[in-house]
Structure formats: C-alpha cells, structure tokens
User: Fold this.
Amino acid sequence: MSLVNFAAREITCKLVYYGPGRSGKTTNLQYIHDRVPEARRGRMVSLATKTDRTLFFDFLPLDLGAISGFTTRFQLYTVPGQVYYNATRRLVLQGADGVVFVVDSQARRFDDNVESLQNLQENLLDQGVDIRQLPVILQYNKQDLPRDLVLSPAELDDALNFRDVPSFGADALTGRGVFETLKALSSRVLHRLTDSGVSG
Ligand SMILES: Nc1nc2c(ncn2[C@@H]2O[C@H](COP(=O)(O)OP(=O)(O)O)[C@@H](O)[C@H]2O)c(=O)[nH]1
Ligand SMILES: [Mg+2]
Assistant:
C-alpha cells in the first residue's frame, strides 16, 4: 500500500523484485541504482545472509512521474529466492504496490520459475491480495545466453504469462530491458493510484 505524506506532498510506492534464486533480481536493482543520480537516490542497504548476497533491499527515489502536485518516490526491494527464505519473502512482500517477477530464461530453470510464481501467488493470497489485482510485470532475464540454453520471450509468455501482463525480455547484466521493466511497473502503479483517487 502506498504511503501518502500530505505535508511533504510525497507518495511512496513499494516495488518488489520477486523470482527464483539467481534469476537476476539483485542485478536489476544494482543496474538501476548505478544509473540514478546520486542526489536522487538513497543508499543501497544490503542484508547479507550466509549463503546468498541476495537478501537486501534498497531505497531509490526515482523521477518516474508525478501525480497532481505530489512527488513520487519508489522503494525497490528484492527478495531472496531460495525456498527456505519464505518468511523473509513474505515480510518484504508486505504492502507491495507492484511486483516485477524476474524469470530466469534458462530452460533448466523453468520449474524453479513456476514454483516461485506459485509461491508469489500464495504469499500474496495469505496477505489478502489477489495477484490479479496487483500490478505485475514479467521480465524474461538472461536472454543474452545462447539460444539453445534459454526459452524465448514468446515461449515464456506461452508457458507463464496466463494473465497476459506486460512482459519484457532482458539481460540485466548489460541493462537491456531493465528500465523498460521498471517504467512499465511504475506507470501501472501510478495509474492505479490516480484511479483510486489520490489527488491534491
Ligand atoms: N548471462 C546473464 N547472467 C545474469 C543476468 N542477470 C544476472 N546474471 C547473473 O546471474 C547470477 C545471479 O544474479 P543475481 O542478481 O544475484 O540473482 P538474484 O538471486 O535473483 O538476486 C549472477 O552471477 C549474475 O551476474 C543476465 O541477464 N544474463
Ligand atoms: Mg539477489
């Protein structure tokens, strides 16, 4: 749920990067963080765990839009993908305004994507959120890998994108598709806010 600060005329939206372990969530955030001017971004906060550098969140004010006189601020979070970190995932997911689901396009990781997508749906449902009501974007990451190792965006759309949400092929390492994904999600989230009647 977005936070509205009427005194500061600022709206804070929470965007969560979800997906299986090592699909490229952290790489997305790192790429974005590196490209936002220092004056416009908060510090990247990292909560390292024993086995994984994934467990971190950060805070990024991004100039991605304004709603009738309000500044919008976006908080970007990643979740740890590993199955056993579900408690953390649930915590990070709480109050999310939108989700980027980062798919690992490698064919051998297909089942992990499905499992993680189901896990997202379950965790949202436990928090009373129907995934169909939440802005979600699919990102098919690692499209730079050799063609015989990865499924194409069209194949992944067929296999995973039942709800026909916006989807983007990406290579987060080089940044291809990273800002397209973020902009698609943030504009959906802002639209939703506008529709729900936040105004000056
Ligand atoms: N080839 C390729 N490797 C990637 C891409 N995105 C991330 N990786 C690599 O995949 C591994 C896991 O990435 P990371 O961002 O830590 O995954 P996370 O667990 O989802 O946060 C790292 O070695 C990354 O360098 C990509 O688009 N292409
Ligand atoms: Mg990570």
Observations:
- The chain has a mean pLDDT of 85.
- The longest strand covers residues 10-18.
